[in-house]
Write a structure and sequence with these properties.
heterodimer; A: alpha+beta; seven-stranded antiparallel beta sheet; 11 strands; B: alpha+beta; ten-stranded antiparallel barrel; 11 helices; globular; disordered N terminus
């Protein structure tokens, strides 16, 4: 007997019938123990090859026949069939699969580390500034309600610091409308932060911890760096875009895909945050140079802060770079 | 594409009568068997994923068909296999429509948030129709032993169980939630058929409620433990320094909460899935599902770790393990001869064509 062994389903019952399958003179012949069928080859359709799975021949009238994976019909394949044949060639070997894996890792890594931040930068620069101002105002009023208290600094002290701040802003950009706000918060401790829309908040606790006015000015220069780079907006954009990207690759994996995507998203967020800190440092250093503040003040302040507030969190989890790394950047 | 050219008659027509001698009926349980392997599927997955990425998602429709064909094709019962028959083009159309809707909503949300929120209402109203079409598509494109599945659910019933019934959940503070889940699953299963064999599902109310009551209690106690750890940590380490990282106990509290939630979700799903399978009938046959919560938790947890350690490359391995385990613990308990599942030829094929013309493929986790 010639031909290959197949399994015939008549489409009427789920009974499986072993058959011999062969093609002769443009006809597909199926022969079981007690019966024979023949169909014009043009009237049957063979599903594309997939791994070691038997392939299904769809026969006229709803019947079908499973044939071995290497079975082929002597008809020219159409474009989709040729494409899937080519895909199958790639799928059955390890080399293309490993190349694909490497390409995909590079692609995802590249877009997450370079592509997404670059795109976020472009989008953030074109964003309506009113949106950022609103975000910032909302953030400040929320902080005022839950964490911040009015500052206890004297009017003269505030004016002096505001003047130094104005000099930094002027060095950054002549037409920037950044403002400095004073608050106090024992819970947060010695700190300053930049809010989207152009507000820097300086806490009394930082003013008290600083051993030199230039240390405060250095921190303000760093915060202006955040504002110049529109870091809050970019951070929001980057984190959400990267989250979507990672979820698209890893997601729909486990039905609890949010779990699988949570860890990479978290690590990415910390990574993006560290990159923003270093960028703000760089801008800050140029502002310090332009206004005659020694970079060493910044380094001294950071080192002291790190010593007093050591968190013991490993570097890749942290949202801030190590003071040591930042001091090295200051020396360049 | 279901290609059944009516103009080409089969050379000798297949006789519709079954004339085999009657066999002694074998009533032993038939296990589901899954034969896919992680290595083979990894190669298929990675090649198709890369092609989907470089074609900006266009190829993903083909990738989906190949993935489902792999999993269906490697699943068998009583020596006969399952099949997936969808045309990638039909899937692509559904995906393009879905992406278009998402894009319109996203852009409109930026430009005119009010108009965007106004669009959500018609979308919610359309949702049951879309669901029915997705169920129909999936069923009509799946087969077992050369015979297609089907879904005959009415849109009016879909509105009842997927739109109106869920509205009672907030009104009753969640008390009707288990009932809604039960009704939705009953609708989905009992409107499905294989050929002309109808599936049936009648879930007992109390066991469904029991699952959710226990889950609620478990979540509450986990939450209490998490909060206690957090408060304790706050007292010891001091919280509220946004510029510095929180201390290790806070991480512990967050990890505990996450783990507790994960365990609870897995336990609920496992219990519910068993309940559904063990009450599902087809003809005189029933099913037995013996999923174990600890096995499922182990699978989910080890899959998660495996995927994280391999930077996502372990996804195919995770899927194969899950499919193998699910098949392993599922069997069909025959209530009579198994070969008798019959569909009236012709009728089924024609109905399939009509169904497909207005069916749309979308992924729903039901």
């Amino acid at each position: 007997m010639t031909g290959v062994t197949g399994t015939y389903h008549d489409g009427l019952t789920s009974h499986a019938r072993p058959v011999r399958v062969r093609v002769e003179d443009g006809l597909l012949h199926l022969e079981s123990q007690d019966r024979a069928w023949a169909f014009p080859v043009a009237a049957v359709q063979l599903e594309p090859r997939l791994g070691d799975l038997p392939r299904r021949l769809d026969l006229p009238g709803g019947a079908s026949c499973l044939v071995p994976p290497d079975f082929e019909l002597p008809v020219p394949a159409d474009a989709p069939a040729r494409m899937e044949r080519w895909v199958n060639e790639l799928e059955v070997r390890w080399v293309p699969a490993l190349v694909a894996a490497a390409a995909l890792l590079v692609l995802v890594w590249g877009s997450v580390v370079y592509g997404v931040p670059a795109a976020a930068k472009v989008v953030a620069q074109r964003m309506n500034p009113a949106v950022e101002r609103q975000m910032g105002a909302q953030a400040l009023s929320t902080l005022d309600r839950i964490a911040l208290k009015p500052s206890a600094l004297s009017e003269a002290r505030r004016q002096a610091l505001t003047n130094r701040f104005a000099a930094l802003v002027k060095a950054a950009s002549p037409d920037a409308a950044y403002t400095l706000q004073f608050r106090s918060s024992p819970a947060i401790g010695p700190n300053a932060f930049a809010l989207p829309g152009g507000t820097v908040v300086l806490l009394d606790e930082l003013e008290k911890t600083a051993q030199h006015d230039d240390e405060i000015v250095a921190v303000l220069a760093h915060e202006i760096g955040h504002l110049v780079g529109r870091h809050t907006m970019r951070h929001v954009l980057q984190t959400s875009a990267a989250g979507v990207l990672v979820a698209a690759v890893v997601g729909d994996v486990l039905s609890i895909s949010s779990y699988a995507a949570a860890l990479p998203a978290f690590l990415l967020e910390a990574r993006y945050s560290r990159a923003f800190e270093l960028e703000a440092d760089r801008v800050g250093f140029t502002l310090m140079d332009a206004t005659g503040v020694d970079r060493a003040h910044f380094v001294r302040f950071l080192t002291r802060m790190e010593k007093e507030h050591a968190s013991g969190v490993p570097g890749f989890l942290s949202t801030h770079p190590r003071a040591e790394e930042r001091s090295r950047a200051a020396e360049r | 594409m279901i290609d059944t050219p009516d103009d080409v008659p089969p050379v000798p027509a297949a006789p519709p009568v079954d004339d085999r001698p009657p066999l002694p009926v074998d009533l032993s349980p038939r296990p589901f068997v899954f034969t896919g392997t992680a290595g083979e599927y990894f190669r298929i997955w990675i090649v198709n994923l890369l092609l989907s990425v470089v074609t900006l998602g266009i190829y993903s429709a083909w990738a989906k068909v190949r993935r489902l064909r792999y999993f269906y094709g490697h699943t068998s019962l009583d020596g006969r296999g399952f099949g997936y028959h969808a045309s990638p083009i039909a899937i692509l159309k559904g995906r393009l429509i879905a992406y278009a809707v998402v894009m319109v909503l996203a852009v409109l949300g930026q430009v005119a948030p009010l108009a965007a929120s106004a669009l959500y209402l018609p979308l919610a109203v359309l949702m049951p129709i879309v669901l029915v079409r997705a169920f129909r598509f999936r069923a009509a494109n799946s087969s077992y032993g050369g015979i297609r599945f089907g879904f005959d659910g009415l849109e009016s019933d879909a509105y009842r169980v997927f739109l109106f019934l869920p509205m009672t959940v907030p009104l009753t503070l969640g008390l009707t939630y288990p009932l809604v889940v039960k009704r939705q699953r009953e609708y989905f299963v009992s409107e499905s058929r294989h050929g002309h064999s109808q599936f049936g599902l009648d879930l007992p109310t109390w066991p469904v409620y029991r699952i959710y009551v226990l889950a609620g209690l478990a979540l509450l106690s986990w939450f209490a433990i998490g909060v206690a750890t957090f408060v304790g940590a706050a007292a010891v380490e001091g919280i509220g320094r946004p510029e510095s990282m929180p201390g290790p106990s806070v991480w512990l509290a967050v990890a505990l909460l996450y783990a507790g939630m994960g365990v609870t979700v897995v336990a609920v799903r496992t219990a519910f899935e068993n309940l559904v399978w063990n009450h599902t009938l087809i003809d005189r046959h029933r099913f037995e599902s013996r999923l174990r919560v600890r096995d499922m938790i182990w699978l989910y947890a080890s899959n998660l770790v495996g995927i994280a350690l391999t930077l996502g490359m372990g996804v195919p391995w995770a899927r194969i393990r899950m499919a193998r385990y699910r098949a392993q613990v599922l069997s069909l308990i025959p209530g009579g001869a198994l070969v008798t599942t019959a569909a009236e030829g012709g009728l089924d094929a024609a109905a399939t064509g009509a169904e497909l013309s207005d069916a749309m493929d979308l992924d729903f986790g039901l």
